[in-house]
Structure formats: structure tokens, C-alpha cells
Amino acid sequence: MAAKPRVAIFDFTGCEGCELNQLNFENQLLDMLGHVDIVEWREAMDDRPGEYDIAFVEGSLSTPDCIKRINEIRRRAKVLVAVGACAVQGGINSMKNTRPIEEVREEVYGKDKYLFPTLPALPLSSVVKVDVNVRGCPMTQIEFLKVFTALVMGKQPVEPTSAVCVECKLKENECVYERGMICLGPVTRGGCDAQCPSVGQYCTGCRGLVPEPNLKAMEDILVTHGLSVNEAWKRLHLYNSHELEGLKS
Amino acid sequence: MKLNELIQPQEPRDLYLPTMATLRDIKPLNALETLYTVELPGGADLGHQPGQFVEVSLFGVGEAPFSISSSPTRKGTFELGIRKVGLLTEKLAALKPGDKLGIRGPFGHGIDVERFKGKDVLVVAGGIGLVPMRSLINFVLDRRDDFGRLIICYGSRSDEELLFTEEREAWKKDPGVDFHVTVDRGSPAWAGRTGVITTLIPGLELELGKTVCCVCGPPVMYRFVLLALKSRGLSDESIYMSLERRMKCGVGKCGHCQINHSYVCQDGPVYHYPDLKSLEEAL
Amino acid sequence: MDLKFLASDRVEALVSHLMHQKAVYAPQRMGRHSVALDKVTNPAAVVLDYSRTMQSVKKYFQPPRDELLKFDLTDQSFAAATVEPLDAVLLGIHSYDRAAIDRLDYNFSQGQPEKNYLKRREGVIWVGVSYEPDEFHFSGSVGIGPLETEGFDVFLSRVGGGYQVETVTEKGGEILAGFDLPQAEQGKPSPGHFHQHIFLPQARLNEVMAASYSSPVWEETAQKCVGCGSCNIVCPTCYCFNVEENVDIKVTGGTRERIWDGCMLREFTEVAGGEVFRGGLAERQRHRVLRKFKYLSDRTGHPWCVGCGRCTAYCTAGISIVSIVNRCVSDFEKHPTTAV
Ligand SMILES: Cc1cc2nc3c(=O)[nH]c(=O)nc-3n(C[C@H](O)[C@H](O)[C@H](O)COP(=O)(O)OP(=O)(O)OC[C@H]3O[C@@H](n4cnc5c(N)ncnc54)[C@H](O)[C@@H]3O)c2cc1C
Ligand code: SF4
Ligand code: SF4
Ligand code: SF4
Ligand code: SF4
Ligand code: FES
């Protein structure tokens, strides 16, 4: 292998759930670090400029300043990886897209709202080209490591695209619809090993929509099970409002 | 009949283990395509028919099917012509002579060259479809006396993407070869013919009862070429087509390559056109 | 025929008897309502009276993740995965699931016989059990009754107070040897009453399905389908797979594995450059159903659907394969000439 790839890590507006997660797996981390030079890691090092082979970016974009920064990062990175639901889909932050922005600013910043210009919370891909996604809220270590090894080998990681239901069936989970719960699994990308249904919870759609989702069929599922379409749509917007806006237009 | 009575008991085999072969030579054909010369351990003969394919793999990267581009008449090594499109093909392009790669095969049903003997052979190749057809072309050239005329129609999107420059020059000069080439869009430097591949067919000199035709190219090409061939009066029985589908196992197990009831990795990739007519999903 | 009687309260003792000879895999309680096949560690946990398991015995012969080889990136060498015979008693299996294994056996033996599957298949003793069909079973329509003993070594048919035990093969006799059972009374076990039926004899289905090719039923079904692929993943006769490379975190080696795949998933036919050969859900649904009722039965004379009802029971969208087929049958009866 040639020179070690230079890796940088950045975060924008997010809950930091992903970043903490990343720092958590010490053993594998050491193995990983053997293969790369970390050039910027906010929680581990100071901000220091440099050119990088791989930039991991967390969080969504919500201020004009964020947009300037992400453009700069894109310019300097060979491969840009969006890490976590916020960065990939706009994440929880993008919920505010469906409410008047003034109202959100009021709520978040109170009377100081005029000091903080904010945009709707955008996924990175709405501003720059994203090469790789690590999905999930928070993203899982296993998946992060998979993406990481692929990138170290210089290959494009393969993203799971089939629905969460497949993973449920592999684990022989009882479907939570049978217990009268709304589950977004049928239209949500798997790859999480059906984390939530496996512990009796419904899927909140944190990994984003499957490619070409059949939302009409999803609606029928809800109706047949006597569940509220409105409530389901509200939940679907939690992680996917940006994508859903895109589907509409 | 019971299901187990339909099967002849045979010793089960390891179907997915590659043979580690050595890359002997690698040279670019154009900006996207590369020609690989591969040697099996001990220079063993691959033992293929024109039109067959091998599964090529790199550990940690993946495995994919590629047509064998060299003629079985040329022994010692075999050749693959590969377009850079994704994971595996990009990694292959970065290999150097002496590097190892995994080979399984040859697989599939190729061209029954025996049935072509004594016939005029018409090859219609679009784009990268020339890669497998080159195996047939060189086979005919190496066994010149067994066959009648050799007619080649080759179409490409642009002149920059044309493959096998030297060989094409040789075919053009060979009095035994009737070679035609066209490009969809020519660069300013292109002096040859422009237009889609079907425009070559009306002008061909064909001796109908004596001609067999083999077609290989991108999915969109088949229907149009077929119409053009039929309007020249070629019979269904004289047409063969090499199809491409997603493949994983190459041995009829993984289900990916199916067209209706047919497994392309077993019954194809080269099909006799009359057999394709019952496959609605084929063309 | 020599029939013995196994009282319900002696099932546990029978399981222990079997466990002394071989590993035993049997249905056991999993969730609130569900039952799954698993290796038995506690004989009391075995459940013989159940409707269906979400996954069939297929998972033991073609595991969802199945290592093909291990590679070493430092010297580009590899070693074949070790594949061991299951060598166990499979207890409490329904007749349709045994019939499904005949189909997988065919797939992995025809053409080039595959070691990975066939090796695992060795050493299995099949102990079947009858069942009462629920609202999804329709095995009767494909010629597999709940009392069908074909392929089993021992078969347990439910009767009042327990099971009639039939020793079907010599191997079955051997595994039962030493376990004393009284002679069974002459009572007949229930042949099972199906609530779901395909309205046409099997022998004519090929013809009907051929005519269904351009039926509107595929598009109509597609409207309701989310394309999740669950119907493939739970089907005991689906065997399609994809192959994946897994590299360890040290980037020194890894494994090549095959994983279950399904023709309802969009990527199944996608090739480089983005061409998808069966892009629409209607085409994919048609392919799935025709694989079960036409493509493979044209070749072998046997339908590739064993009527277990799983694909219907576990489809969140409630799409029923019986309804699809019956719709094709009734369309055919109205217009038998639309054959393509
Ligand atoms: C019979 C046959 C002969 C072929 N011959 C040639 C040839 O001579 N030269 C050439 O350049 N290409 C050929 N192809 C196409 C070649 O297989 C694909 O370009 C290749 O799979 C792309 O792999 P990748 O990993 O680089 O691309 P990715 O897009 O990263 O592919 C990922 C995986 O998808 C599958 N896949 C993607 N595209 C195809 C495809 N077109 N066919 C089958 N599986 C696919 C493979 O399993 C591959 O591992 C042939 C295909 C078939 C079926
Ligand atoms: S619980 Fe949710 S993800 Fe699991 S099968 Fe049911 S709908 Fe699909
Ligand atoms: S089940 Fe749904 S919500 Fe839970 S981790 Fe998976 S994708 Fe996210
Ligand atoms: S399980 Fe149902 S919804 Fe999912 S792909 Fe199959 S038919 Fe469609
Ligand atoms: S198609 Fe459905 S009913 Fe038939 S065997 Fe498969 S899962 Fe069972
Ligand atoms: S490639 Fe696997 S069945 Fe044809």
C-alpha cells in the first residue's frame, strides 16, 4: 500500500451522538489508526488545516457559515463521507423544514434569534457532492468500520439498500404491526440489523428511505392495519423531510 | 417423476474456489478499456469456446464475469478486455504484470464453432461487444480454411472508444475479411463512417443460405440489429446472440442471471435466436 | 404398517432419547406468538403443535450468511471454508418444509453439484409432524398433505392425547430403538382441512401461468407492494444469493461470503452503468410467482411453491400468492386464448 491516507473529521450541527460513538471503540480504533494519519479531529486535536484523502463529516448544515465550511472541506477532500442521519438526510434537524423558519428560530434562540441566521437544516448532499454515506442515528460502529476498511483499501463501500423488513425476517422477529404499532421498516433502508424491531420497538426510519419507495403502498399498509397515516407521515418526516420534499417535486 | 430421480448422482464440488492466475501483460485499449493477458498456473490451457466467460476476482474487492477475448487457438495465455465501470474493474486496472487474480471458469454456453464450419460468418459487434466477438474472429482467421467469408460490422459511440486498433488495421487489409466500422459521433479527426451500427447492414454482400450471424452489444442494440438483419432476409435459424445479465455464481445457482426460465450463465450467454423467442424478457 | 403411540406427556422423553444420539433441532417458542427452529438444549422447550416457523430448515443447509472462503491479503492466498455435515435430528418438521428441501436438493445437485450445500445436508434424520392448516396454508393444492411422510424417517401424526408414530425408514427405526412405545390404537389422524385453495389442478397451472404473462394482475399487485423482498426471504424454496467480500479491520485478510438475496429486490438484476433488467415491481412480482408456478415446474414437473403460506403470512402489505394465482386462473377461464 502507498502512503497512509490522510483522514480528517468535522462536525456540524448535530447531536454529537455519532461522534461520541466513533470515539468509543478503542480497540478497533487502534487497528484503524494504524492505517491512516488523522489530520483533524475536533475532539481529539486542534483545528489544523491540511489536505486530506478522506473527510468524515457529521451533522447537517444550518447556517450560511456551515455552507462556506462544507464547500471548503469538499474542495480539500478527495473522498467526502457523510456520517450519521443528520449529515446524510438532514436528520432530525431537518424537521424544522416543515415548520416556518421564524418559529423555529424563536424556539431555539429565543430573543437572540436575529444574531443567528439559520437555514433549513440541509443534508450535506444538498450542497456538495457526497461520495459515501454512513447511515443511522446514531451510525453503528460495525458499519463505520466497514466503510472505513473499504476506504482504506481504496474502494467504494457498498451501501445496503433493501428494507429493514428483510433483516427482521432473517432474525425471525415478530412484526410490530401485529402489536398494533406503526413501523416505518417497509420503506426504510436496512443495514442496522433491524435494531429497533428486534427489541420490540418500531422503526423510526432513521436510515432514510429505500430507493424508489412505494409510499402509496405504505399508506395502504397503515390503513389495512387501522393505523393513523398522519401519525406515520409525521414520523417519517422526522428523519426524511428533506428527501420527502424532493420526492414531492 | 420424483425430483431426486431427475438428478444423476455426481460427486459434489467446490464451485466457488478460484484458481490463482498471474497477470502477464496489461495494456490500455482506450481511455476506459484495458486488455489483460492472463496465465493459469503452469501455463495450463483454459479450454474455452469463443463466447464463453470467466469469473475474475480480487480478494477483498469482488468477483465479476468477463468474456474471454482471445481465440482458443492461441494457447499458453488468454485475454480479457475490460471496461472500467466500478469496484472490481477499477482495481483490476491498477494491477501490474506479475500480480495475482482469481479465475473460475470457463463458464456458459459459447459459440458452437462446429456448426459454423463451411459457412460465411457475419459478426455484428457494438461497443465492448467486440471483446467476446474477437475470440470468434480470431478463431475463424486461425482456421481460415474451415470457414467461408468473414464479415465484420463494428459500431462504437465515438472514434476515441474504438478498440483493438492494430487488429482492426490488419482486418481492414486482409482480403479475406470484409470489415466495416462506424461511429455514432465522430471527432474532427475521424475520416470514417458515422451513423449507428444498423446503417452498415443494408449495404452488406450476403449469400443468404450460407451466412451465420453472431450479434453482441449493449442491450438497446439487439432489437434494431435484428430488424435490419431480417429485412436482409437472414433466417432466424442463422442468427446467434450473446446476452449480458447480472451474474454472481456463473454456475446456475445464484439466480441472478435468469431471463424467464433460462439461466444466462448456463444456456447462454450465446443463444440461438429461435430459442430466445420464448423468452419474453430477453430482448 | 407398524404404528406406535406417543402420549403428549412423553414428547419430552422422546426428545431426550434423540438428544443422546445426535444434536436435535426443533421448533421452540421465540416471541410472544412465534415459534422458530433452534438447536434443542432443553427438551421441555420443544413445541410440536405450531402453525409455521418464519424461517424453514433451509437456514441450516444454506445459511443466510455462508462463508465460501477465507483470504489472506498479504500473500493473496486463500483457504476453502470448512463445511461440516449437519449430522442431526430435525424434529417436528412439516411436510411442506420437507418437500421444499427436495427442491433445494434439486437446485444444488443439478448441473454442477455444489459441495457447500450438499455436504451440510448429510447425516440428517427427519422426524416429521402433522399440523392443522391455518388461514395461510395451501399445501393441499400443490399435492402435499399434512400427513405426507415422503422424505421423513419418522413421522408423528397428531391424534387424541398425543401422536401416532410411524417408522418410515430403517434409519428412523434405528434412532427410535430403545425407546419403548406402546402400539397405537386404530384411530385415524386428521387429514387436515385447508382454508386456502388454488382453484385448478396443479397439472394445468403451467398453461394458466403462461397465459398470465401480460395479465393486469402484476401491475395491480405492484401498486400494493413495497418491494421489501420479505416474501423471498421467508420462502423455503428461494435459494438466490449474492456474494460479498468482508475485510477485517487490520486489512490483512477477510472472507468471501454468500448472503441470501431475492428477486423482489431492485438491485437483483442491476448491472454496472445502472441498467436494471426487471425495473418495475410488476415484472419482479411476475418473476417471483412464475418461478414458483411455471419456470421450474416446466423443467421438473413439480411446482416450486410448497404451499407453506409464509410469503403471504409475513407480507406486511398482505399480498397473497394464492389470490394472485387464483386471479390468473379465473382470467384464464374467461379468456383462455391470451397465451403468449
Ligand atoms: C457474460 C458476461 C460477459 C461480460 N464480459 C465483459 C467483458 O468482456 N468486458 C467488460 O468490461 N465487461 C464485461 N461484462 C460486464 C462486467 O461483468 C461488469 O462490467 C462488471 O461486473 C462490473 O463490475 P464492477 O465491480 O467493476 O462494477 P460494480 O458496478 O461496482 O459492480 C458490482 C457487482 O455488480 C455485478 N455487476 C455489475 N454489472 C454487471 C454486469 N454488467 N454483468 C454482470 N454483473 C454485473 C457484479 O456482480 C459486480 O461484482 C460481462 C458481463 C457478463 C454477464
Ligand atoms: S417490524 Fe417493521 S421492519 Fe420488521 S417486518 Fe414488521 S414492518 Fe418490517
Ligand atoms: S430499525 Fe429503523 S429506526 Fe431502528 S436503527 Fe434501523 S433504520 Fe433506524
Ligand atoms: S413481502 Fe409483500 S410487500 Fe414485500 S416484496 Fe413481497 S409482496 Fe411486496
Ligand atoms: S411461494 Fe410462498 S407459499 Fe409458496 S413456498 Fe414460497 S413462501 Fe411458501
Ligand atoms: S450467474 Fe448465478 S445462476 Fe447464473
Helices and strands in order:
The complex is a heterotrimer of chains A (249), B (283) and C (340).
Chain A: E1 6-11, H1 17-23, H2 26-33, E2 37-41, E3 52-58, H3 64-76, E4 77-83, H4 84-89, H5 101-109, E5 132-134, H6 141-152, H7 164-170, H8 195-198, H9 215-224, H10 229-248
Parallel strand pairs in A: 1-2, 1-3, 3-4, 4-5
Chain B: E1 19-28, E2 33-39, E3 53-58, E4 62-67, E5 78-83, H1 87-93, E6 100-107, H2 113-116, E7 120-126, H3 130-142, E8 150-158, H4 165-173, E9 177-185, E10 193-194, E11 211-216, H5 221-231, E12 239-242, E13 258-259, E14 262-263, H6 264-267, E15 270-272, H7 273-276
Chain C: E1 3-7, H1 11-19, E2 23-29, E3 35-39, H2 58-61, E4 65-72, E5 77-80, E6 88-93, H3 95-109, H4 115-120, E7 125-129, E8 154-159, E9 162-167, H5 170-176, H6 202-211, H7 217-224, H8 230-234, E10 241-247, E11 253-260, H9 281-300, H10 310-313, H11 321-334
Parallel strand pairs in C: 2-6, 6-7, 7-8
Antiparallel strand pairs in C: 1-9, 2-3, 4-5, 4-11, 8-9, 10-11
Helix pairs in contact in C: 6-9, 6-11, 7-9
The structure holds flavin-adenine dinucleotide, iron/sulfur cluster (SF4) (4 copies) and FE2/S2 (inorganic) cluster.
Description:
The complex is a heterotrimer of chains A (249), B (283) and C (340). Chain A is α/β, with parallel strands linked by helices. Chain A is 39% helix and 11% strand. Chain A has two domains: 147 residues, NADH:ubiquinone oxidoreductase-like, 20kDa subunit (Rossmann fold, 3-Layer(aba) Sandwich), CATH 3.40.50.700; 85 residues, no CATH class. Chain A has ten helices and five strands; from the N terminus they run E-H-H-E-E-H-E-H-H-E-H-H-H-H-H. A five-stranded parallel beta sheet of chain A has the order 2-1-3-4-5. In chain A, strand 3, helix 3 and strand 4 form a beta-alpha-beta unit. Chain A is globular, with a radius of gyration of 19 Å. In chain B, strand 11, helix 5 and strand 12 form a beta-alpha-beta unit. Chain B starts with 18 loop residues before the first strand and ends in a 7-residue tail after the last helix. Chain B contains seven helices and 15 strands. The mean pLDDT of chain B is 93. Chain B is globular. Chain C folds into two domains: 151 residues, no CATH class; 106 residues, no CATH class. Helix content of chain C is 30%, strand content 20%. Chain C is built from eleven helices and eleven strands. In chain C, the strands form two sheets. In chain C, strands 1-9-8-7-6-2-3 form a seven-stranded mixed beta sheet. A four-stranded antiparallel beta sheet of chain C has the order 5-4-11-10, with no helix packed on it. In chain C, strand 8 and strand 9 form a beta hairpin. The radius of gyration of chain C is 22 Å and the shape is globular. At the B-C interface, strand 13 of B face strand 4, strand 5, helix 3, helix 4 and strand 10 of C. The site of FE2/S2 (inorganic) cluster has 12 residues of chain B, from loops.
